[in-house]
Amino acid sequence: MGTEQKVAVITGASQGIGAALVKAFRERNYRVVATARSIQETNDPDILAVPGDIADPRTAQRVISEGLARFGRIDTLVNNAGVFIAKPFTDYTPEEYAAMLGVNLNGFFHISQLAVAEMVKQGGGHVVSITTSLVDHANSNVPSVLASLTKGGINAATKSLAIEYASRGVRANAVSPGIIKTPMHAPETHDALGKLHPVGHMGEIRDIVDAVLYLEGASFVTGEILHVDGGQSAGH
Asked: Quick one: how far is CA 134 from the chain centroid?
């Protein structure tokens, strides 16, 4: 794959974990293609901002084609964009179902397909996706069937991708978080949400960034679902 500067594509990159991932990959001297509906241009010539809804396949096409035109390669894809709606299963609306499948599954599929095709041409690459620990430990206090349906699908697809492309130098892994302190959760909810974890507190954005960076550098790791969840997946 040569010694050229590597390029990471990050979805859901405008805030929270996504914005922190952009910063972390730049600190490792990666060029970054950052996409989100509300992404803003920066003064950094090594960050390409591509606004768009990842549920729309045209966004995936623009992200990859513009990234290749600007930087010439795609080494890593971080599927960070996600929608989480916790409510009783029978209360989900068709619109909520469409939104979660659109971002979580369709968004994963379209951009991963294009990115993997480029990685195969280059002789290697890495796809890492952010899922949720709720896939592995359903919780009656957090009704989340659609999260399990969509993010659980990504966990399964991650293992399948890892095996299908192992001999062609493309790795696939996932990070499965517990509840992380992001703008999604108001500060007054932190104590209650923290108690849902055996360690007694929520995770920090840095915990997820560190996990992604570990997987990025772990050349012998593929098909891994790395739980960063304060012990949730182990039990209660």
From this structure: 15
Q: What distance in Å separates the CA atoms of residue 145 and residue 39, rounded to the nearest whole number? A: 29
pLDDT digits (tens, 9 = 90+) for 166-178: 999 999 999 999 9
Alpha carbon distance 131, 42 (integer Å): 28
Domain 7-226 has CATH 3.40.50.720: yes
Matching residue, tokens 């890892």: 162
- Cα distance between residue 156 and residue 174, in whole Å: 10
Q: Which two tokens stand for residue 108?
A: 């994963």
- Cα separation of 94 and 88, whole Å? 14
For the record, the structure tokens of 171 come out as 């790795």
- Strands 76-79 vs 225-228: parallel, antiparallel or unpaired: unpaired
Q: For 208-236, what is each residue's pLDDT tens digit?
A: 999 999 999 999 999 999 999 999 999 87
Neighbours of 29 (CB within 10 A): 9
In angstroms and rounded to an integer, the radius of gyration of the C-alpha atoms of the chain is: 17
How buried is residue 58: exposed, middle or buried, by Cβ count under 10 Å (0-12/13-18/19+)?
A: exposed
CA distance 35 to 21: 12
The helix/strand/coil state of 168 is: helix
